[in-house]
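Subject: Predicted fold for Putative MFS transporter, AGZA family, xanthine/uracil permease, 470 residues

User T.R. writes:
Posting the sequence so we have a shared reference for the thread.
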Amino acid sequence: MGVSESLERFFDVQEHGSSVRTEILAGVTTFLTMSYIVVVNPSILTDQPGIPGPDGIAIAGMSAGEVQSMIAVVTIIAAATATFVMAVYANRPFAQAPGLGLNAFFAFTVVGALGIPWQTALAAVVVEGIIFIILTAIGAREYVIGLFPEPVKFAVGTGIGLFLAIIGLQAMGIVVDDGTTLVTLGSVASDPVAIISVVGLFFTFALYARNVPGSIILGILGTTVVGWAITTFGPITPEAGLVAGSTSVTYDITPLAGAFVSGLAQVEAFTFALVVFTFFFVDFFDTAGTLVGVGQAGGFLDEDGNLPDIDKPLMADAIGTTVGGMLGTSTVTTYIESATGVEEGGRTGLTALTVAVLFVLSLAIVPLAAAIPQYASHIALVVIGVVMLRNVVDIAWNDLTQAIPAGMTILVMPFAYSIAYGIAAGIVSYPLIKLAAGERRDVRLGHWALAGAFVVYFVVRTGGILTAQV
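User M.O. replies:
I've generated the structure tokens; pasting them so everyone works from the same file.
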């Protein structure tokens, strides 16, 4: 029996309506789309010497560049480990890596604003991961996700689509921040990054519309090549940012691996509990939203809007978080970029295994992320974001008790820049609207409990309670 047949049998590829070739292609697509994390995560987690006060991980006797390259290796190992567990245990095409947003909270809030040593922050990540493992093992996480109101479940995919799109448009320079309107159109006619991004985006859309196999990969690579060619042979200088920089790799991660153990000895109970709670809440609902949203895009959900055997991908996520914290990185979570591979046809763990293998291979060479500029890889996010908008048709818009929670979920995700906040808005509004409409029988006690938990979370997260403990 050949390798292809063995993979096909192990992952039940044919039973899921796919092929080995499609699964591998989908894995490559997902990896290229999320590979930016190998560069972005270290830059966020590393303490930058030019900024007053601590704002990340700093190791005595090592420069910021050395620490940054060390975290890049840890990021790769953590992502590969977590995604491998997702592949062989859960048999789902979901990829994992340290989560954006959670790494910023780790560096700027926990280490920066709260002044908590980075070793203790890593200890909080490990504790959160262990709690997740326990809750997943007893079925509690699956039960909580089962409490998601139906309109919220059906809205998550569309909300994630908008969230993906705004992340991609920002990286491409098409949407930029504005002091008056918050966001506005970038300099698309003068900024080289924006110009090449627009060309690459419509090139990818054209390939996708013609059902060209691997259209997203071709769009990413084509855009990268054009940017490189114009910089190398044309009038554009390297300072324009069309070509990605290189990342040096430090393989000795011993100063980071296991650092959480010393962090446990520096715990201040109340503040530590609040930090664990925040990591827990955001990771829990980011992961739940991603699994449901990407599952919807892949047609994995059952007639009730639930992802069958969701406890397995949840366990993979919990193990990834625990391993990541032990190695020396912030919370590992399931990536919404997995939607790119699903849209390319990925349906089994072979897609995730491909992502894990590519992460491992990137240790032996210069990380692939260093060769793919962020603006090029993020073209995929906009394409998939547009495609995921079609999920909005599953919502009963003629019923306000369905439309309001769904609408709040969709709107808050991109505008608050958080999957968890969007889900929270939908869950909190659902029982209130049902009660106001006189449909109290549709609301279970669990809905009220979940809504109440989110209210507490918002108070903790935005009420200044964390910073008051400094």
